[in-house]
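Hi everyone, sorry if this is the wrong subforum. Our group has a chain we'd like a structural model of before ordering constructs, and none of us has done structure prediction before. Sequence below.
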Amino acid sequence: MSRLYRFITENALMSIIIIAWALTLTTVITVKVFFDPPDIPAGTVAAFTTVFGLPALAFTVWKWRRDKQ
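Answer:
Right subforum, don't worry. Here is the predicted structure as tokens:
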């Protein structure tokens, strides 16, 4: 685990990829839910709620990366 952490912290490109992935995933899922609403079971609601935590995580990673430089 320490090698993975070191790789992510030493490579700014990896941080950018994580941020872009989180924001893209959130956008795609939100568009899908609002423009093609499915019959939403409880498991889907839990997954959708988890996805909304990703922008906060992405912002935290971006802020941490900015303060590190």
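For your construct planning: The mean pLDDT is 77. The chain is about 85% helix and 0% strand.
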